[in-house]
Fold this protein.
Amino acid sequence: MTKDSLLQRIEGKREELTDLTCELVRIPTVNPPGDAYTDCARHLGKRLKERGFEISYHRAEGSPGDTDRYPRTNMIARLEGQSPGPCVHFNGHLDVVVAGKGWTEDPFAAVVKEGRVYGRGTCDMKGGIAASVIALESLLEEGIPFPGAIEFSGTVDEETGGYGGVAYLAKEGYFSKPRVDHVIIPEPLNVDRICLGHRGAWWAQVETHGRIAHGSMPFLGDCAIRHMSAFAELLEQRLYPALDKKQTKMTVVPEGAKKSTLNIQAIHGGEPESFEGMPSPCVPDSCRMVLDRRFLIEESLEEVKAEVRELLDELVRTRPGFRYSMQDIMEFHPTMTEGDAPVVKAVEEAIGVVLNTIPEKIISPGTYDQKHIARIGHLHDCIAYGPGILDLAHQPDEYVVIDDMVKSSQVMALATLNLLGVET
C-alpha cells in the first residue's frame, strides 16, 4: 500500500462521497426539537456494520429535550485492529439548525450543482461526516493492517450544547483513555486549517423586577423595562468598551472574534409576545434579558460573571427600586489543544501531502463538542478539521464544495494511519 494508492481510491469515491452527503441531508435532523435522530444514526450504523464495524446505539435518557417522540439517539462504530495500539476516533454531530427563510433551493433536497451540494447541514456538518466515513472505509478497502482501533460516532444536540450527545457519552467513558487516544471532529473550519479549540461561553438570564399598576397611573407602579434599560445603558457605556480592549494569544477567527464579545440575545418584558388583540394598560413588573458572553483563555469564568454582576449591584445602590435576579443558562471554559499535539502534527503533515500547504492553526469563535471531550473525558488530543466554509454555517443556501470533501477525506485517512503508527 502506498499513499498514492489510498489517495487515488478516495478520489475514485467522489460520487459515493457526494451520494452519502445527500442521503444524510435528506434526513432532516432539525434541532430543536430533535427530529429524525434515530433514523440518521441507524442509517450510518447500517452502512458501517456492513463494512465490519461493531455498532452500538446510546439514548441519552433524561437529557434536555429527550422524549419518546424525540429520543436523543447516538451511534458509535468501532473496528478493532490486528494488535494492541491507539484508537483514532472521528466524531460528527447529526443535528442541524432550522432551515429558516431565504433559500433558493429546497433545504432538504440536497441539490448537486456546480461542484457543490446544497442543503441544510451540508457544511455544518454532514459533509464532514461523509468525508470521515469514506476515509475510514477507504482504509479498510486498501486492506491495510493496523494496530489499535478506529471509531466513528454520530452524536446529537451539538447545536444546543451537546448535553444529549458527546457530553452524555463522555460521562459514560466513551471519550477517555484507554478507550480513545485521538479525536478529530470534522467541523467546517475550512479544508486548509486546523482548529485547536474554541472560546469560552457563558449564557445567562438577567431579570429586573418591578411592580404592576394601571398604565394610566404608572407612578403607582415600578417599570421593570425602565430598570432593564438602565442596565443596558451601563453595558453600552462600560462593559462593551472594556471588552474591546481585551487581548488574547488565541488565534481566533475571524478577526473580530479575537476580542471578548457580548451579544444581547433576547429581551422579553411586559405584554406576552403571544398575546392577540389590543394590549392591556399595565406597568410591566418583569423584564428578562438573555446574555451570550464569549470569552478568552486569559479570562476566568468568575471574572466574566463578576463584570455583569458588578454593574447590576451598582444599580441596586444608585437607582431607586432597582431589583434583579440572575440565572446561569450554560457555561463552558475556553479549550485549546497544544499546537504540537500528536493529532495536530498528524493532520498538519497530511494537509502538506494532500494540499501542498502549511495549514493555519486557528481557534473557533463559537464552541463545539471538543469542550466535553476535554472537560468530562479529560482527553486533550482533540481538534476540529473538516470540509466546509465556516461563514456558510447556519446560512440560507448552505453548501459544501465536493472537491473540499474529497481532499479532507484524503487528509483524514493519512492522518489516521500516522496516528496508528502505520508506515506508508
The chain is about 35% helix and 25% strand.
